[in-house]
Amino acid sequence: MKYRSDIQGLRAIAVLSVFLFHLNKDIMPGGFIGVDIFFVISGFLISSIIFTQKEKKIFSFKEFYVSRIKRIVPAYYIMILVSMTAVSMVYLYSDIYPFRKSAATAVLFVSNTYFSTLDTYFGATSAENPLLHTWTLAIEMQFYLLLPLAIIFFSKKNIRIITIGAIVVLTAYCQYNLLAGGRQDQMYYSLLARIPEFLLGVSINLLSPKLKQYFGGNNVVSVVGLVLIAGSLFFINEQTLFPGLVALIPCLGACFLLLSEGSVVNKVLSQNKLVYIGEISYSLYLWHWPVFAVLRYYNNDYYFSPLNALAACALVVILSIVSYQFFEKPIRKATKKKLLLILASMGCLLIFTGFAMTSIGTWKQYPFRYSEPLGLGLETHAENMNNTNKLNLLGNVCAKDTILLIGDSHGLVYKVYFDELGKQNDFALQSITNNVYPPIPGIDKSDFENTKTYTQYRHLAAIVEDNVTAKKVILFCMSWKNADRFTGLPQLIDDFIKRLPADQNVIFLEDYPVSEINPLREYRDLVKDATKDYRFRLKTYSIPQNVMDVLNRYHNAHVLNVNDNGFYKDAPFYNDTLMYYDRNHLNRYAAENLAKLTGSRTNQFISKYFDTN
Questions:
Q1: Domain assignment of residue 512, yes or no
Q2: H-helix or E-strand containing 507?
Q3: Cα atoms in the 13 Å half-sphere on the side-chain side of 432
Q4: 141-145, 207-211, 220-224: which range is least confident on average?
Q5: Domain annotation covers residue 613
Q6: Tens digits of per-residue pLDDT, 269-325?
Q7: Exposed, middle or buried by CB within 10 Å (0-12, 13-18, 19+), for 68?
Q8: For residues 385 and 455, is the Cβ–Cβ distance under 8 A?
């Protein structure tokens, strides 16, 4: 097909939208729809190439896949190599291992599947993973494997029927999963959910002879297309059920602009500056996210200062131009033999760097008790409980009295605390904990971000119901900071206590103070340095008053604060040693020392409810 500069301009709009959204999602809440525009353009252009070559009887699967590899893979692998090196130098030792998993899936172009199931509650968040954006390239490559097969082995008439049918069926499938299944994460990264966007681009080629007489050069059509895209950029956001039917809005906008070649809007899109941005759009897309993610991790903050934002943008532009000029353009002209040599060399470098990552960086491997989730009791925490319903014993495993602890991830800290106390005071501890959502029965499905977390919670809550009445004392802990995210929390707690026998006691734990920053990332050491000025603020979230009102109505509901203000006076250090492994969780060292400091008082409190001596 002939070169169209307006399509490069449309690419520029798409990549700039994604760029601004990733720089700061408050600037352009729907900027992520730029990815959907890319998918429409890809479907349009690739199908044009295949249809043309098929009609001329010169199509070759081998040549098609070689051309796609040349276009995508070398620059992509360079970006992964640089990202791996940057992560090795900047990230905590404990965050390198999960990153390597994402790197492996990215190299194989299956990272969309990996990210759809990723749990980033502990450690680096998704916004700090330099390869999160590779899910789009994975979907694109997967689509490229399928499209030629359909176009070559079916007639144009059948392809039209298949394309329209697939758009309708797969959009309905996606919408059903969003509404009834609550699988937004899975659908966002799903090839099946995104195929309709590619096929809309394909359909433009299939119908273009008939449609061009109505849409070609039509200013009204082009303006409608632009309005659909512009409206999506500002009225669609992360809370929108997406992709599904809503994704068709910007995609149809892109279709209208592809059809209205020659219109006033399309002429604006053909301006030289936009065309150049469109030409380097692939490199811009490749490099912008790794730069943003690494800087976010290093700064320990999602938002950039104006100076950091300017520096990040400048670095992205430089890397993109270098990548385009020295990798993208030259490799497009490479022979198959040279391409094979380049890919083999890159493959070896990727494997070597993957194994060497933990040795490249300046980070030393800090002992787990200071720098990672506490480890104790992890087998009965969150998804680990899917493998077994057995509640392992902590504390004095031979004791006749057993406490049941239920709660969210803050319960991991209290598992260490009460394990120490149990060993000292002759009681055992069993626990059932979860990320964010404590497994107290009755939390509404609407409070959950996705079906996966709701299903996990339901499994844990069922185990709680099976075990709760068998223990004389129950400990309940949660991050009270999250109390507002649950619908009717006081009523949930009221219902929970009502179901307990009158002689069964439930103790609600006040929360420990949490930090506004991750001190390990901020200070990059475990030991306090007297020459440094540590900016650190703690905030304590108490049990909400509406929950306290419920507890005060029951004689068998009690409140316990195991914290000691003196313990936190030098936070984030205790005895000059770091006491937090991230912003929300004490490390094992802190939990053990807190038990030594306040354990006697805590034991006196709980001994009233069963004899621990």
A1: yes
A2: strand 505-509
A3: 27
A4: 207-211
A5: no
A6: 999 999 999 999 999 999 999 999 999 999 888 899 999 999 999 999 999 999 999
A7: middle
A8: no
Cα-based angle 412, 413, 419 (whole degrees, multiple of 5): 90
By residue range, what is the domain housing residue 504?
A: 369-606
Cα–Cα dist 440/341, whole Å: 58
Are 402 and 286 in a shared domain? no
- Is the pLDDT reported for residue 613 higher than 60? no
Please state, in angstroms and rounded to a whole number, the distance separating the CA atoms of residues 68 and 71.
5
499 close to 466: Cβ distance less than 8 angstroms: no
For residue range 565-612, list pLDDT tens digits in order. 789 998 899 999 999 988 889 999 999 999 999 999 999 999 888 753
Q: Which residues pair with 446 in a beta bridge?
A: none
pLDDT at res. 459 = 92
> Domain ends where: 339, 358, 377?
358
- Amino acid at site 261: E
276 with 390, same domain? Answer: no
Same domain, 351 and 398: no
Across the chain, mean pLDDT equals 91
Do the bridges between strand 394-395 and strand 428-433 make them parallel or antiparallel, or are there none, so unpaired?
antiparallel
Strand partners, 429: 394, 403
**Are both 301 and 449 inside the same structural domain?**
no
Would residue 310 count as lying in a domain? yes
Kindly state the average pLDDT of the residues 199-218. 82
H helices within 24-122, ranges in order? Answer: 34-55, 61-90, 93-107, 111-116
pTM of the model: 0.89
Please identify, among 307, 323, 358, the residue that sits at the C-terminal boundary of a domain: 358
Considering the domain architecture, whether residues 314 and 382 belong to the same structural domain is answered as no
Output the CA angle 221-224-230, nearest 5 degrees. Answer: 145
88-142 confidence digits (pLDDT tens): 989 988 888 889 999 999 999 999 999 988 766 666 788 999 999 999 999 999 9
- Do 375 and 349 belong together in one domain? no
Residue 508 placed within a domain: yes
Q: Look up residue 22 and give its two tokens.
A: 């990733």
